[in-house]
Design a protein that fits this description.
It is built from ten helices and 14 strands. It has helices spanning 4-40, 44-58, 85-106, 116-129, 164-210, 272-290, 296-311, 388-391, 402-415, 420-435; strands spanning 63-69, 75-82, 135-143, 146-155, 221-228, 236-242, 261-268, 318-326, 331-337, 343-346, 351-354, 372-376, 382-386, 445-452. The strands form three sheets. A five-stranded antiparallel beta sheet has the order 5-14-13-10-11.
């Protein structure tokens, strides 16, 4: 009986099993090395340096290369590995020439779309430039955003076969390369976001320091205020400005009753850093104008003219209510630049009125004119200065709190003869219940509560 065919079949089977084992071992080693590299290398370039060498070994080729296009629009050979240094330099030069010519031919002077047709043209150019004996094989490096580059292997061996196993190994390395690139981009974005958040925190700290640190002791007034910004940096503003800046460092007991105080509130259109910068500019310019000792209407007129040049092209404007309180007479003189009119509750009549005068937004028209009015305050009267973040606060159904609800809440608090702080707390708590305590405010919310007291002479 002839056993030679059976023996040959067994030998072939054994060789196949051995080949599969070698392939499995090679795949396992590849995955282990890639996993180690991904965990260990903190720098993407370190990981990319390893890829051409690794892919050359696992595919039994003579060289490997990564060509990547970056978000900056650059296309370059990221890494290249060859068995011989001289041939590697020649190969790099030939590929670089192909890249330059393809970029020029495809879209001279324009943004390039790195799609499949571009890579096809590039590879045709590379093959033309290379020695005809060099075989080139490739696979794409794919991210969610699209193809980011390609991974290549080269071989001069005429007997070299591009088997399915080698294709799978090359694709496996390309996929892990895509993971490394994606992780690096996420890390860069995270660091950028952390740096931006820190800068915003610093901006918020600076802005908070510009707001009154404590309420001034103004004869005949009891004050309370809150500033709830929607972002780190906001565009709302309130201030208490003495007519004489020397009073800023005086002790409360030394403040003279003849000293007038400015009480102001404003809102820059928009939110975030741009609004915060304009708010800071408004604060500084307004304080400088107050030093001139003009009337409230003249102060806003000068402020508008000065700020117009800066705001004209920014598409941002400022609403501002400015008032001056005279402790000697308890008269409030005020002017308004299109801000939400403060609400004045009169204790003697339980009547609610708005404090308003005609006036355009700050920065809208350089020649705007502003009018002013006066109101005689009485002990027990209460005024709230507020920004539209309070009336625009919305619940989960999209319903606004609106001015009617604000008036009702404010009037109820006044009728109960609450203090300024208690009145403010009542309004904020009512809005929290309306919107839901877990719901963040969509706009900056600022309020000043001013309750009039008797003056002990």
């Amino acid at each position: 009986m002839n056993y030679e065919p059976q023996i040959a079949s067994v030998a072939a089977l054994q060789e196949l099993v051995a080949s599969l084992n070698r392939q499995q071992k090679k795949t396992h080693e590849l995955l282990s090395n890639l996993g180690f590299a991904l965990r260990s290398f903190k720098n993407l370039n370190q990981f990319l340096e390893l890829i051409p060498l690794m892919v050359t070994r696992v595919t039994d080729s003579e060289g490997g290369a990564i060509i990547l296009f970056k978000k900056t629009g650059q296309l370059q050979i990221q890494q290249l590995h060859c068995q011989g240094e001289g041939s590697c330099n020649d190969l790099r030069r030939q590929i670089e020439v192909a890249i330059i010519k393809t970029l020029t031919d495809v879209s001279p002077g324009k943004d390039i779309n790195f799609q499949a047709d571009f890579w096809d043209k590039l590879e045709s150019r590379i093959e033309l430039n290379l020695d005809f004996r060099i075989k080139i094989f490739r696979t794409p490096i794919l991210l969610e955003s699209g193809e980011r580059g390609r991974l290549y292997v080269f071989s001069r061996n005429p007997a070299y076969e591009w088997t399915s196993d080698r294709q799978k190994l090359l694709q496996l390395v390309a996929d892990q390369t895509a993971v490394a690139i994606h992780n690096d981009e996420l890390t860069v974005e995270l660091r950028k976001k952390e740096r931006l958040n820190r800068e915003l925190e610093i901006g918020a700290e600076i802005q908070e320091r510009l707001l009154p640190k404590k309420f001034p002791d103004i004869p005949g007034l009891e004050l309370a205020a809150c500033y709830l910004n929607a972002n780190h940096v906001g565009g709302d503003y309130y201030d208490f400005i003495p007519a004489n800046y020397d009073r800023l460092t005086d002790k409360p007991s030394e403040i003279e009753i003849a000293n007038k105080w400015s009480i102001t509130i404003g809102d820059v259109m928009g939110k975030g850093v741009p609004a915060g910068l304009i708010m800071t500019m408004t604060r500084g310019m307004l304080r400088a104008e107050v030093l001139n000792g003009h009337s409230p209407a003249r102060i806003l007129q000068h402020l508008n003219r000065v700020m117009y040049a800066d705001l004209e092209n920014s598409s941002r404007f400022v609403t501002l209510f400015y008032s001056e309180y005279d402790p000697a007479t308890q008269i409030l003189t005020y002017t308004n630049a299109a801000h939400n009119p403060p609400l004045h509750w009169q204790a003697a009549t339980d009547r609610m009125t708005q404090l308003d005068t005609p006036g355009m937004l700050i920065g809208l028209d350089a020649d705007s004119r502003y009018e002013e009015a006066q109101v005689q305050l009485q002990p027990g009267d209460t005024i709230i200065f507020y920004t539209d973040g309070f009336t625009d606060a919305a619940n989960q159904d999209g319903e606004r709190f609106n001015e009617e609800n604000l008036i009702q809440t404010f009037q109820t608090a006044c009728q109960q003869q609450l203090s300024s702080q208690a009145t403010l707390d009542r309004i904020v708590a009512t809005i929290d219940r309306f919107t839901g305590e877990d719901r963040s405010n969509g706009d900056d919310m600022t309020m000043v509560v001013m309750k009039v007291k008797s003056i002990d002479l």
